[in-house]
Amino acid sequence: MKKLVVLTGAGISAESGLKTFRDSDGLWEGHDVTEVATPEAWSRNPELVQQFYNERRRQAQTVKPNAAHEILAEFEDHFKVTVITQNVDNLHERAGSSHVVHLHGQLFQSRSSIDEGLIYEMDHWELKMGDLCEKGSQLRPNIVWFGEAVPMMEPAINITMQADIFLVVGTSLQVYPAASLVQYTQTSCPIYLVDPKKPGGHFGRDMNYIEAKATDGMRQLKEILLKK
């Protein structure tokens, strides 16, 4: 089976009803990202940060995977698929994708605020101040905030280098370091980009553009790839 590697972004989850911080002048549900998604924000007002991510979890529980998520899961019948996602929701897993790499962390996980290796699965939406890890420190969202290192970037690069086909879905390739992944594809690897707007700039690789929302674009891409 050919190795199909997919980089997904906020656009694929937006069609399920999850809002993104790029929806409205950099505001995320009315908050500047620096208020809720940086280490400084956590130090300054951890209660606000907890409240913000609690609301994100509660909202995420009300939405379902869409056709784009489902088509990516269906591709596992035809390809060896790895999804590398910038999204923190679990919609890929819920749709049936079995190999998902989360670059920016996972919404339904918490972790120790003093030991980033202590990660806990969450089966509920609320993380409270006073919820502690086994070492006695406050639990925080297991999210890679702006200004923090992206620990899954190196594994994602290694996966990308082995791709026979590379897809980009629902991201305008503006967020780094994730956007740099296209540069690690082999020169013989075809790249398909599905997004309503063709991104500006040159990424060092030829790309096949499908200017459409994720669901419509993935339906088109399914026809193209399965014909091949």
Task: Provide a compact summary of the structure.
The chain is 29% helix and 21% strand.
Describe this structure in words.
With 228 residues, the protein is α/β, with parallel strands linked by helices. It has helices at residues 10-14, 33-36, 39-44, 46-60, 67-74, 91-95, 153-161, 214-227; strands at 3-8, 27-28, 31-32, 80-85, 100-102, 105-112, 119-121, 139-143, 165-169, 191-194, 208-210. The strands form 3 sheets. It has a 6-stranded parallel beta sheet with strand order 5-4-1-9-10-11, sandwiched between helices. A 3-stranded antiparallel beta sheet has the order 7-6-8. It has a two-stranded antiparallel ribbon with strand order 2-3.
Helix amount: 25-40%
| Tally of helical runs | 8
Envelope shape: globular
Task: Give the class-level CATH name of the largest domain.
Answer: Alpha Beta
Largest sheet composition: 6 strands, parallel
Radius of gyration: 18 Å
Point out poorly predicted stretches.
none
CATH architecture of the largest domain: 3-Layer(aba) Sandwich
In angstroms, what separates the terminal alpha carbons?
Answer: 13 Å
Annotated CATH homologous superfamily of the largest domain: TPP-binding domain
- What structural class do you assign from the helix and strand content? alpha/beta
Q: Return the string of H and E elements.
A: EHEEHHHHEHEEEEHEEEH
- How many structural domains does the protein architecture include? 2
